[in-house]
Amino acid sequence: MTEQMYRVALASRPTGAPEADNFSYESAAIPTPGEGEVLVRVHYMSLDPYMRGRMDDAKSYAAPVPIGGTMEGGGVGEVIASNSPHFAPGDFAFGMFGWATHAVQPANMMRKIDPNQMPITTALGVLGMPGFTGWYGLTELGRPKAGETLVVAAATGPVGSMVGQVARLAGLRTVGIAGGADKCKLATDTFGFDACLDHRAYPDAKALRADLKQACPDGVDIYFENVGGKVLEAVMPLMNPHGRIPICGMISWYNAGGLGAGASDPGLSAPGLWRTILVNFLSVNGFIISNHFDRYPEFLGQIAPKIASGEIRYVEDIAEGLENAPQAFMSMLGGGNMGKQIVKVL
Amino acid sequence: MTEQMYRVALASRPTGAPEADNFSYESAAIPTPGEGEVLVRVHYMSLDPYMRGRMDDAKSYAAPVPIGGTMEGGGVGEVIASNSPHFAPGDFAFGMFGWATHAVQPANMMRKIDPNQMPITTALGVLGMPGFTGWYGLTELGRPKAGETLVVAAATGPVGSMVGQVARLAGLRTVGIAGGADKCKLATDTFGFDACLDHRAYPDAKALRADLKQACPDGVDIYFENVGGKVLEAVMPLMNPHGRIPICGMISWYNAGGLGAGASDPGLSAPGLWRTILVNFLSVNGFIISNHFDRYPEFLGQIAPKIASGEIRYVEDIAEGLENAPQAFMSMLGGGNMGKQIVKVL
Fold first, then answer.
1. How far is CA B266 from the centre of its chain?
2. Which residue is closest to B230 within chain A, CA to CA?
3. Which residues in B lie closer than 8 A to residue A232 (C-beta atoms)?
4. Residues A4-124+316-344, CATH architecture
5. B129-289 is a CATH 3.40.50.720 domain
6. E strands, chain A, where?
7. Could you tell me which CATH number the domain at B4-124+315-344 has?
């Protein structure tokens, strides 16, 4: 094949927030699948906060993207050539195809998708890694009980909206935090949060905490941690005894010098945090969903019917064109998206 | 009764390390037990780091000792008068008798002890709250697996020595940290730790971490947190993925301005700690043993025979006289004790 493909490569490592020149949009020859491999034409790709971490070379759960390497990420696409008995041209699949129009992947690293059952974009959000992350973290590490209170930030994102809706269905009071009045309206009107606070309306953690306390009159039993920073500082002192804090990410700190920057509130210094964990008997658990794929069928079995019935809703924000992926990504890290951020590649 | 008793009261709240004038030694009339109550003559009382926390009025799991109130604490003593069918004069019992020669307590708040089975002092240490704390935290929250590596500080204290011995019997490599060469020798020779580091020999967390890394060639799977400070800073970067950190206390921070002081290593600032928890999928759990008394019979059933057989050993450091309790307490907070600190009251 001599047809060209396109990809977005990591041109340089960002310091702080990524900028356009950290990325390069390049053409390349479409690769040929080897034995057991499949060639896919990517239709949609996912943009997720964790990708910011892959741009650094600090120690993390995954190896960094090398300079010049294709940016990593999940996508859904159509099989156009296959050297595996498990896939035929015309099949749709989810895989880690990267920021690219085409990708070759081992068949055993891909998951087949039925485009007639659900829009294929759902494999990137509500029924994909983000939705699964929210469901697993809440269910397994949050251990929700009816009558309790949950707080989650990025409440309209694909993780936060799953967390909030699953918690609401389990009988919890759900309080979201989001950036801007529009997102807060989306959180309450579409995702059914009992309340949502606009973190941009508060100058600091202390001010946010005061209103959060009003919104959580019985304290906070589960804080699903996916942003860090000001929200974490605001929530910690409100945690009830035996509270649970699943941690799946800290987007607000991803840009802050490799997460090394100090919290602004001295009471939330390291000893302050540890003391809070101790005296409230908190359970704080970091996790990454890729260690728990064995639970995916259970997630799908529980959640897919609730999406079909409308009990669980989802919102997608779709940017057009692979060449616009860096801009969409930078915008998302700044909260510019409304719902799950996806890029339409094809 | 007109006979006099003696007690140690909280005269004033300490700022930083407690000093002699924070305590007052006072006489009082021996109280008379009401319906369902028992009068006890205290033989031995326990000194524990948590008592430092009760001297502050900061929010904690327990109400502070009021100014002028008797210092709280557990003790073992002999019943000398009883208005309960459950206790008779001559019985021995454990209870929260405070820093006092005599105490009246409701019978249902006391636990009978058989002085013929085990020395009564063991009810304060190896078979009491500290030993139970170590066993529960390690077993339930540490989830030890043979071949893993455990680190615990205050390794010769009643909590740390239980943690280390139970972990060793479960097939773990056990590395202790203690203050001084004598304690390190006690840790390896008496309590069977594979290695013990003297934290006083290191100027900072970084230096301690370097040797700890040598002592833990396969990393650290369980860090039983009972001291905080320099040791915590040293250990955190050595934690293996899926590591567990049970937290039962942070003695090194108790004196540091209500635990609000910052860690010295900026990498261990709040975002740094949270990032470590996230990227290593750590499980961090604060606990207080009084929430888990339902497990006490199981603890006793497992550990008492191992003490009788010599598989688990204990060391006690007994000060003489209630009037010397403040001095023994201040010394213990500075690491001056060797083994479980007890005061012989009678």
1. 29
2. A271
3. 270, 274
4. Alpha-Beta Complex (3.90)
5. yes
6. 4-10, 23-29, 37-46, 75-82, 92-95, 102-106, 111-113, 149-153, 173-178, 195-198, 220-224, 239-247, 283-286, 316-320, 340-344
7. 3.90.180.10
Is A258's pLDDT higher than 60? no
Q: How confident is the model at residue B135 (pLDDT cuts 50, 70, 90)?
A: very high
Nearest partner of B125 among B323, B318, B345, judged by Cα: B318
- The sign of the dihedral angle between the CA atoms of B138, B140, B145, B149 is negative
Contact between B299 and B132 under an 8 Å Cβ cutoff? The reply is: yes
Give the C-alpha separation, B190 to B184, whole Å: 10
CA distance A125 to A96: 14
Distances (CA, A) of B69 to A115, A140, B7, B99: 72, 44, 9, 10
Cβ atoms within 10 A of the Cβ of A253, count? 24
The residue-averaged pLDDT of B101-122 equals 94
CB within 8 Å of chain B, chain A residues 241-260: 241, 247-250, 253, 256, 259-260
Residues of A in contact with B267 (CB under 8 A): 260
Does B219 reach chain A within 8 Å, measured CB to CB?
no
Q: Helix crossing, A129-136 with A296-308: angle to 10°?
A: 100
Name chain B contacts of A286, Cβ cutoff 8 Å: 277-283
Contact assessment for residue B166 and residue B311, using Cβ atoms and an 8 Å cutoff:
no
Domain boundaries, chain A: 4-124+316-344, 129-289
Helix ranges, B221-295 (H): 229-235, 251-254, 270-279
Which is nearest to A339 in space by CA: A228, A186, A188?
Answer: A186
Of A244, A241, A242, A232, nearest to A273 by C-alpha is A232
Residue A329 neighbours by CB under 8 Å, 6+ apart: A18, A47, A51, A341
Q: Residue B28's beta-bridge partner residues?
A: B5
Q: Which ipTM did the prediction report?
A: 0.74
Give dist(CA B314, CA A207) in Å, integer: 51
pLDDT tens sequence across B192-225 = 999 999 999 999 989 999 999 999 999 999 999 8
User: Are A281 and B291 within 8 A, CB to CB?
Assistant: yes
Distance (Å) of CA A334 to CA A163, A311, B212 = 21, 29, 40
What pLDDT digit, counting tens, does each position of A285-339 carry?
Answer: 999 888 898 999 999 999 999 999 999 999 999 999 999 999 999 999 988 999 9
